[in-house]
UniProtKB/TrEMBL annotation:
Source organism superkingdom: Eukaryota
SUPFAM superfamilies: GST C-terminal domain-like, Thioredoxin-like
Compositionally biased residues, Polar residues: 31-40
Pfam families: GST_C_2, GST_N_2
Annotated protein name in UniProt: GST N-terminal domain-containing protein
Residues in GST N-terminal domain copies: 276-322, 623-689, 967-1032
Residue ranges, annotated region (Disordered): 31-80, 151-182
Biased composition (Acidic residues): 69-80
InterPro entries the UniProt entry points to: Glutathione-S-Trfase_C_sf, Glutathione_S-Trfase_N, GST_Omega/HSP26, K_chnl_inward-rec_Kir_cyto, Thioredoxin-like_sf
Amino acid sequence: VCTPLTVACPIEPSSPLWAVFKDSKTTVCPKSGKTINEMTTPRRMRSKAKLEDGARDGGEPSGSHTETESEYDSDSDEEDDPWLVHLTFTAMDPVYGAELCSTTTYTNGTLVGPARWKDVIGFGRDGKPQIDWQNFDECVDGCLNDPDAADGEGAGFRYSPPASSSGGEDGGRSSPAYAASERSDDTAFGAAGLRTTAPGALSRFHDTRFFKAQEDIVEMEPPDPYFNGYLFGQQPAPDGPPVTGIPRLAVLAARASYGTGDQLDGSYPVGPLVPFCAYCHRLGLLYQEAGIPHEEYAVDGRDKAKWFLDAFPAGTTPAVQGTPGGVPGSEDCLRTTTGEHCVPWVGGFDEILKRCIEQSPAFAKVANDNGQYKTADVMKLLQRGGGAMFASIVATSELPIGQALVKRVMKMGNIEVVDGEDTMSRAFRLNAIASESLKDLDSMIGKLKGHFIGGDRPIQADVFAGTMLFWAHNAIESGFAQIPEAPCSLSDIGCGALRRYLERWVKRPSWRAQFHSSSLYSASLVMTAADRVRKMAPDVCQGGKALSEVMDRIRALDDHYRAEVGLDEPVTSDWTPVMGQTLPPAGPLVPGVPRKAVLSYRASYGSGDALDGPSQLGPIMPFCPYCHRLGLLLAEAGVPFETYVIDMRDKPAWFLEQLPAGTTPAMQGTPGGLPDSDQWMGEFDEILARAKQQSEAFAKVANDDGPYKTEYIGTLGSRIAMSQVAARYAESNLESAKPILGMYMQFGFIPQVPDESSPALRQRLINIAIDSFAELEDVIANLNGPFIGGKTPNQADAFLATMLYWSHNALECGLSPLPQAPCSLKEVGAPSAMEYLQRWVRRPSWKECYKSDSMYSAATMMVVCQMLANNASDMCDGGRQFYPVMARARMLDSSYCDGKTGLTCKAYFGHRMSGEYDDNDVDASPGPKGTPIPGAPRIAMLSARASDGDPLDPIDGVSPAGPLVPYCTYCIRLCLILAEARVPFELILIDHYAKPQWFRDAYPPAKTPAMQGTPGGVDSGEWVGGFSDLLERAVGQSVQVARIARQRGPLSLKDAETLCEKLTSALVGGRVLGSKYPAGKAYARQCLERAGVLPEEYMSKSDDELS
């Protein structure tokens, strides 16, 4: 197969056109008598080296070159000579054996470059090559020396000090890349106007959206669609301008496999987009360590999204929109437009870093160079070692482009280029330099006085070192590096200190958030480097074949990739269908990285009981506020720690063996535990005191220096939460409820009143909660900063946030006994408290502790509901009354819905009763028992099955019987309104073709929707129907329903109903037109009338015309 040629690029020996135009068949220009080769002489070009030499002689500073400047200029008028280029493109069709031919003639002025022909060879869904017929005779911008590829890790060996002015839009990496992308940008589905519709992943924890996350994430990312035979996905464009103080960061990303079936991808499935660019990661880590939330947009190096190139034509990364790091938008623009383009994207790593330091004191505090070693000293070794490592891989290449790559990388690493040195000697020398540099750096890291160069927390030098070491570590472990020991570990080559240093980095929340993984391995990173070697020096890797083992090895090590594409089954121990247990810790304690045991629960145990209902088994999620207080303080202090979730229902044997008391929180290691001991220690107060003594960083965060002391704030938060749950026990007559009631009142610092009646106690507790919410609102509304501790949280904040989170969930899910519930904090008079909690949830420390960035925790609600069901069953019908509470909690909790259970809970409107119609028990179906719970009506919804499983029915055929599924639009409308209003309800499915006898007896019209209970029904408990009547009563009986039903939009209810009636009538009527049966003809005409077609318009027309 003849691949496309680059056209209109400068003709020099490194150009692919050189071999085409230098031969004798090149056409001679009739005017000048010169060949195209002579007309495009190399003396017309001024190389980048000359540019830099001129800059050092008094012109522009070295490194100030930008991508918008031409690297070539003219020294003569000869470039105006006319010329013709007549090109013939041929390709052999391997399937039919036919030769395809395309000819095009270009004249002076008709060919604008740099440009290249589109790639006409693609891949089908089976991974086999196929011809893309639409791409013949089409050209796109860009040539083989594509500046976009400078984003890659190969250029990442170059280092420019942050204070310098060097650097193009890629942070100083102004050298051109070494290869074009495998296909043109226009063949990507995103460039053709298609893109995924799911939201992108964000690094800030408010959910990304993004990345999966989409991202990462990321989570990050939907399945990638095929387009033109390729399998590439793109992250959607951001919506509107960035939020002030929350910048957007575009990071270069790649996949561990692109699913093409080539020598690098093999048979591995396409992987998610994962950031790999060292410069991008440095900015992201500094953002994370400084506590600056930001949105992340992953830009596939092989398929940059059209929206990104439109918004930022340079297309380089890292790029930032918003501050800190970018430039503020025009106030006039933001004031007069929707704001999408008012805040520009800007690039250039050094410039972004400089602006971040100037614009954010928090960022400047982290991005300092005051550690044990200077950034320049550390990077000098890493730059030299990393450059030697990469250069040694291609050192034996005999191709001109490969040799040029070796020399370029050596110069970036400040490695001497010896003239006349043979390739093998050069390879040996480069391997020796790589090993020597790593060992020198290992010696430096081994002498650190703290965990990092900056002490207990990373600084700028750590961020630069960590990202480069991560690349070197992956290159060595995968066998991509050519040092004699590889594939091996850093420890195997005598660099154990570097390995331990990297492990400390990977355990930090900032690393996990930025890299979207806690793995020490990244197949996406190695893929980028391997792909570059395959393109630039195919003679050293058998065209990529020799690198397939490298990619197989790194993909086997990359847990994140394998988990995302389903290559690995979950590894569990002592697993039971209902409970499950957390695996015990593996290996010795890492100094300074304690282990924390956290009491946890599940949103559902999949048992089918009154609280679980039909919901599936959920993941174990931490809920204990005391455990979370410790975790938040550790995370805010930058102290890495390991978390072990302990299921309250099923504490694992290993934990009880090591801590017989089995209490949580418990700590092993320091800070928090005992020094020089692996013993687990409990008791919150003692752990907190030891942590302050053992860690200066922890003590600095766990201070009590704010305007409100921890004792007062902790008491207030506990009183709000405990008064609400205690009110649920107040009127119980069971002996088992009394000690639980006393415990909650004690925890809430609520005094007992002698001879107080149960109803009076309940009302007093509700009043305490209402008054305490008002007191809390006054406290938070008058803070001088976002937190009690000021700009960052302190100990009082950690104490308050954990209890406020509980109260927020109780209110929203309806567990709270307050009359407004289910409602928000705002609806109980605490809007500032809601904003305060949202600020907390967006912080990386929150996600690290709660294992979720959701505002909701169904597991937390499950604990309280289960205790009520066990100890005060007379107040909740054995827990049955709390099923709507748990259904709502599971619906809101993103860690359960669309998470590990795979559920999309928002599709379920309410509780499906077990008394619904069943094929095997038509008349004996008992229906719902008793009367509905006040405020939680029952709704009978007309339903049907996709198949009744009747093999004699021509519609069912051989299809098995399906479940009952709601289909009545009026019923669904009613359910949607109630669900949006947060009104709990029980959903009873009524089979359209076999309505159960209990329903006919209870409601003789047997029509749907029908309701029992309020809001919507009548107080007598009778079943009533009629959509309009039900909705009108619900509006009058519920403030929440009235608020939803009375909202006004651009389309009135009447207009919406008219449009929908016309649409459905036209669709159905058109389907039955042409029926030969009288009933069919009459129905078709009736549908046409409903669609607005007048009788005189259709009486005289044929069925074909009407259709």
